[in-house]
Amino acid sequence: MSRMNVRSLLLLVTLLSISSSAAASADYGRDVGTKLGSSVTNILLGWVEIPKNVIATSNQVNVLFGMGGGMMKGVLHAVGRTLTGVVDLISLPLPTQPIAEPQFVWEHFDEETHYNPVFKLKD
User: What 3-state class would DSSP assign to 27?
Assistant: First the structure.
């Protein structure tokens, strides 16, 4: 077997063992449903980070800096939230914690978004 086939097989076995042990937990269906909802929402509504950061930065510093700095920060967070939504969607069967915090863009609208470790499994 080639190295690529061995690595692919090991990855498949690892993913199946993690997802099968996670499927045994009672909360697996709810967790996957929530992860699906948050990943699709983050992909579709990542752009909401732009006005969110303009408002938050304007309230923290001043309106002038909020329009410039908040806009740049919002674009970066919009890209980050959208990409974390894609990663969450790809890793849907794995019971991982959400990457973007807060999990949904409209939660804690006055707080800046931060990002958790990518594949941290739920306890």
Answer: coil
